[in-house]
């Protein structure tokens, strides 16, 4: 990650160049990020402002994962990474519970195998 993030502007709370060095990087399932960031990433500016960090998302080819790159001061980027990973896990568990409830409901209705 030796290059600067491709953005039109860098938020005022991010100090250039020191906060752009050594970003926190992690991967999250793309469907979970859509739940976190809203349609078309509409919540990203708000999350950046509240967390005092800058986010960059990179879709990984041949995978359902997206790489999340977090820039900012040391504590802010660690806190933002933890927050986003926690939110992704919460959404994953919520979707999993929904699928289990759906399976239970289908079993309760005794739907034939052609309906499953």
Describe the structure.
This protein is α+β, with helices and mostly antiparallel strands. It has one domain: 2-Layer Sandwich (Ribosomal Protein S8, Chain: A, domain 1), CATH 3.30.1370.10. It is built from three helices and three strands, in the order E-H-H-E-E-H. It has helices spanning 30-37, 44-51, 74-109, and strands at 24-29, 54-59, 65-71. It has a three-stranded antiparallel sheet. A hairpin with a 5-residue loop joins strand 2 (54-59) and strand 3. Helix 1 crosses helix 3. The chain is elongated and about 60 Å long. It starts with 23 loop residues before the first strand and ends in a 7-residue tail after the last helix.
Give the topology, please:
Elements: E1 24-29, H1 30-37, H2 44-51, E2 54-59, E3 65-71, H3 74-109
Antiparallel strand pairs: 1-3, 2-3
Helix pairs in contact: 1-3
Give the strand content.
Answer: 15-25%
What class, by secondary structure content? alpha+beta
Strand order of the largest sheet: 1-3-2
Overall geometric form: elongated
CATH class: Alpha Beta
Mean pLDDT across all amino acids: 83
Number of domains: 1
Specify the number of helices.
3
CATH topology, by name, is: Ribosomal Protein S8, Chain: A, domain 1
Could you state the order of secondary-structure elements as H and E?
EHHEEH
CATH architecture: 2-Layer Sandwich
Radius of gyration: 18 Å
């Amino acid at each position: 990650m030796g290059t600067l993030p491709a953005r039109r502007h860098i938020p005022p709370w991010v100090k250039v160049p020191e906060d752009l060095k050594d970003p926190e990087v992690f991967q999250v399932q793309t469907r979970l990020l859509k739940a976190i960031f809203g349609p078309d990433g509409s919540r990203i500016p708000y999350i950046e402002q509240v967390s005092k960090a800058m986010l960059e998302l990179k879709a990984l080819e041949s995978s359902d994962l997206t790489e999340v790159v977090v820039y900012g001061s040391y504590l802010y980027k660690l806190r933002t990474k933890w927050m986003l990973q926690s939110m992704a896990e919460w959404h994953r568990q919520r979707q999993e519970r929904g699928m289990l409830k759906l399976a239970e409901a289908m079993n309760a209705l005794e739907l034939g195998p052609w309906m499953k």
